[in-house]
Amino acid sequence: MGDEAHATLTYQGQVAEGRAKLETDELVFRGDVRLRVPFRAVSSVEAEGDRLLLAWDGEQATLELGEKAARWAERIRNPKTLADKLGVKPGQAVAVVGDVGPEGGLFPERVEPAEAHTIFLGASSLADLDRLPELEGDGALWIVAPKGGVEPRESQVLAAGRAAGLKDVKVVRWSDTHTAHKFVIPVENR
Asked: For the domain that residue 30 is a member of, what is the CATH number?
């Protein structure tokens, strides 16, 4: 889901070739040296030409990333919010059905599903997926379900959405414990 690049890492006196990945809320490097830097721990990030300079928790590292260095520095400084990733704009009509956890507080002004541009369905069990036919509208439908093989599993969420005649188009990390899958009405059926 993140942006990935071949990179050279300089860290703790070692230089290593490998893959750097800019995830939702952390930078990960895999090679002879492994490194994981959560954005919330970063005290400074700068781009100098092709190099990304990071400082966090008393540590420092440099990644030679090429043309991605400046863009990655900006994304680390200003990570997207959950609402940004979901495509929900201020003032947009949102409905929340079921328990989507504390992240549902992002949408204080809610409407009924029939009036919504975007619907969020909290799927804590397989039975919650049976509600899909009653929630269909013209906008996006996000199904928020647990991670880690807990029912409903990802395959069950995808199967339920497709059985309801919807197309899955995006997946977003909702929280540490949940994932959100976006479904829309296929273009040919609109």
From this structure: 2.30.29.30
Of 98, 89, 82, 104, nearest in space to 139 by CA: 89
Count of domains observed in the chain: 2
Runs of H (alpha helix) within 15-172: 69-77, 82-86, 126-129, 132-135, 154-163
Phi, psi of 107 (to 5 degrees): -120, 75
Find where tokens 């029939």 sit: 114
Residues 1-45: pLDDT tens digits?
A: 579 999 999 999 999 999 999 988 899 999 999 999 999 999 999
CB–CB of 116/94 below 8 Å?
yes
Last residue within a domain, chosen from 79, 98, 118: 79
d(CA 100, CA 106): 11
C-beta contacts of 154-159 below 8 A and 24+ residues apart:
154/179, 154/181, 156/126, 156/129, 157/123, 157/129, 157/181
Domain identity same for 69 and 157:
no
89 and 17 fall within a common domain: no
